[in-house]
Each structure stands twice: as C-alpha cells, then as structure tokens.
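Quick one - inputs below.
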Amino acid sequence: MEKRLIKKDALAGIAKKVAEEFLVWAPVKKEDNVLFEPLQKDGEPFFAYLNSKNAPKNVFFPHTEALMKFTRTEKGMVFSSDENKADSSVLFGVRPCDTHSFALLDKLFDQEKYQDAYYITKRQNTTVISIACVKPPYASCFCTSVDGAPVASEGADILLTDIGSDYLVELITPKGEKLAKYFGDAKADAAAETRKNEIAAKAIEAIKSKIPAHEVKPILDVNFDNPFWNTIHGKCLACGTCTYMCPTCHCFDISDEVKGGDGVRIRSWDSCMFPMFTKETSGHNPRVSQKERWRQRTMHKFKYYVDNFNAIACVGCGRCVMSCPVNIDIRKVVEDISKL
Amino acid sequence: MQNPYIPYPVVVDKIITEVDTKDIKTFRFKFVNPEDEAKYAYIPGQFGELSIYGKGESPIGIASSPTQKGYVEFTVQKAGVVTQALHEMEEGTLMGLRGPLGNSWPLEFLEGKNIVIVGGGFAFTTLRSLINYMIFGDNRKRFGNITVIYGARNPGLLLYKDELIEWQKRSDLNINVTVDKGDATWTGREGFVPAVCKDVAPSKENAVAVICGPPVMIRFTLPVFFDLGFSKENIITSLEMRMKCGIGKCGRCNVGNKYVCKDGPVFSLAELDKLTPEY
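Output:
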C-alpha cells in the first residue's frame, strides 16, 4: 500500500483541487451543524469537525432519489427514462464509523442476487476519503464495541491520520490510488507508521463508552417474547429521528409523483418506527404498537443482520443517542438485554 | 447489471370480471417486447409487482401457469390506490410489470407426492396456477393424486368458474367446490372449507397439503389436517405482507431474519414456526 505525508494545512486546498475534477462531498458548516454537501466553487470545507450531524449515507442512498421517469401517452402512462446515474465523485473526510457503515450497507444493497442498481452505481463512482478520529469526538462514541475503531479503514479508499504536523495518507484501494496525484510526493517513512499505530492504540483506549453488542445475539435469539420489550418504547414519540440519523438504517418507500403529463417514481427513506410502515391495505398491521417497532429495530441491528450477514448493523457513532428527543439510549437497551 | 426496479412494459390484453360483486378481475397482460416473456420465466407461487406509473405498484400473485404461453395473468381485488386504478383500466392500456419475485410452490418437493390443495375465497389465485401447471400434458404424471378443496362465501364469488367446470370433467382430478351458502341455482356442496376438508379426509400418506385462504379459514383448517396426521413439514402456505421493492431491501416485509418478498412468500408450517409471529 502506498503511503504519503501531507502538511495538515494543505488538506482544504487538496479538497478544492479535487473539486475541480470531481464532484466533492465535504464537511461544510451550516449554522450550528456540519453536513456533507457538494463543495461549491467558493465553498470552504470544514475539516476541524467532530462528526457530521447527519450520516453521509445520503451520498449513496439519498434521502429522496428519482428511480425512473414516465410520461403520458394515449394508451396510458409509459416508462420514459431510467434515472440510475451518478457523477464521478469523492466523499472527502468521512469518519471511520461512517465508512464502516458503507461496508455494512454494501452487504445488503450489493448482494449476489438482486443488486440495487442505484446504490451500486453511486458507490462505484465514488471514492471515499476517511479522516481518522485521533481523539474520539463524543462521549457517546462506542465504535470499538461494534467491530469498529477510531482509526480504521473499512469501507474507505484513502485513510488520513493526523500524526502531528502531518497527515499520514494511506492509499488503500486501487480507487484510492487513482487520486494519488493530489497528495504530493512525500513518501511516509517507518517513523510515521509507528506514530500512527501509537495514535490508533491511544484512540481506542479513549473510547470509554462500551456496550455488550456481541453478547446480546444469543439472548435475542430466544427472547422475542420477553416482557422486557414492554419497557423501552413508553416515551418513544415514533418520530423516526433515530432511523434518519442512523448510518446503517436503509428502509425505504417508493412512490410516484405526477405533474401534468409527466411523472417520476422516487424512493425516499422510510422508518420501521412509523406505524404506517407495515400497515396493509386491509387495515391489518403486523407490528401493531411502538413496542413491536422498537423490538424490530433492535432485533434487526443486533440479531437479524448478524443472522443474514454475520455483521452487527450498528457502527457506534452515537447519533441516535444524541438526537433522540426523549433520550432513549440504544446503549442502555443493549446493556439491559445483556442482563436478561 | 439488470435494474430490478424497472418494470417490463406490458399491455392489458384482456380483462375478465370474476365475481358478481365485480370487485375481483383477472387481468391478462402481454409483453410489449416479445423477448421479455422469456425473461419473465416464472414458477407457480411467485408474484409480480403490477406497476401503474403515476399510481404506484402492487405485489400480486401470478394466477396463470407458466404452461400458458404468450401472456401472464393476475387476479386482483379492488382494494387500494393501485388496484383501484387497475380496475378502471381498459383493454389496450399500457403499464408495467416487475418480477417474477419471491420463491415459489416447492415443485421438486411436490413431485411424486399426492397433492391436496385447499383454497378459500380470493386466495385461490396462485393455487390455480399450480393446478394448471400440474395437469398440463405430461406434467400430470409427475404428481400422484390431486385433491382440490375450494370454497367461497357464495356461488357468485367463486373464481375461474369455467375452469372449475372443466376440471370437474377430468378423471385424474378430485375437485370439491363448496360455498358457505348456495343460491336458487346452486346444486353443489354447501359448507365451510374446514368441514369439507374433514369430510373429504385426504390421506396423509405421501401427501402434501397446500393451503391458502383468509386467516379465519386457515385457523380452522389446520387442526383438521393435524388430526388427519399431516406434519408441519407437509403443510405449505403463502404469506401476504406490505411490500415495496420486492427484492429484500426496503425492509417492509421483514419478519424475523427473513424477507417475505424474497425468502417467501411460500413457507411450510415448520418454517413459519421458526419465524416471529409478525405477519
């Protein structure tokens, strides 16, 4: 693997340079929040951020995207165009928990059978540059409990680690190597490597929040009917914020919109927290209350995804913990399950 | 990479009103591009997404048999936005069709066995596909005795009336059609499906029961088959769930670690026992 060094203050300039050739998604300050947005010509990337308010999954799985267009004819509405397309782009500066989420979403959207064309096209056309968490940003971070780490490269094409005055640049994948020209020609020496390893070890130690994420799988296997499930949802507002903030939540709706003679079929994020999510035309609803919906969300992340893909569908970013308006804490839920 | 969300263009070739209440119709579709028919190779028990641009999609079981060439049929009850629009369509209208989706009736497992088919009301559609498949030409030899028990609330609500008459003429089919309550012209059997099952009492020997119907029918029919000695492995059914993508991504039909759209809709009772009861 090719490794280089760049001066820390050179990073924003590199991002702007890359933006001359590609669409660059970079952390941008928006009022009090930092969000990943396409870097505008006069825009300034904000790399001194903790983590973005929203998960960057929207780059591959937009909140709303057109699937196809259709148009009216004398014989009815007919298909007119497949909207599966994506510009060559660079997602610049994602945290390792979020790149981990891309690897998890790949397992679902890029299966051998039933490939999700829209997700895959965007994923293939995007190079992911990650910036390691030298200091874990939040007290609620728990990536080390769910197979992640503050300095980790899963799901990334390039990993940048702050080793003092420089960033160590690791060009991990062939896709990452294609951007080599932007990262100067200073080769990293063994000392830089050693420094990075020390920093990585320290960062892991700094993650104090821990959950028994692996331990709960066999417990969930046999506790679908446990009265414990009555204890979580009491204050849940069914607002769906946890699922919208979550980097691995991927449920969606498909709907049609028509204006005049033309229309578009779109997909948009949906949430297992919403009562309508499973409600059938007949009126029957298999998940009848918020209790069942909370059980579904928990089971899906810590049991079903493990059953199907041998991976926990949580990256420990803590966004749901910080965003829940009524302070339901997934860490506490998992902790409680481990004691059943 | 084939984009699984893009429907095949189809034309509504024929519409058959199945029932007196006129809210269940069979729609026969022909593919606009003849080569798409081969791509839409399906097995009885699978379903398709009927795609009406501007309204949405509706997952419906395939009612025709793959032995019927040149078209695909779906029998649809008018219920929601999409099926309402479908019912208002005229022959010659263009629309879309996705699929075939889901697993299917387990044909290999059924081969060489005696087959008992139990259907109630409007849930007879994919069973009709299976029957027409099994009795087509040489296919018939691959299956043992075929017993069909099919019931509706009244004679006017029976689906596929002409076919029922044809089937009853065959000596290699045991057809039992029943209605909850007959009318002035009804000369056939009266009684609920579970009672007729008890009466017909199909043998469990080398037999598989394939059961589809409203929940209340299933609830009272299953004990009859347990009493007859059928094991849960040898009772097969098909689930319905709210669906969107049909390919195990959108999360709507997730039951336990399965997705009804891609791991189902067909399950044996033994398999259903392992699922969480969220359907």
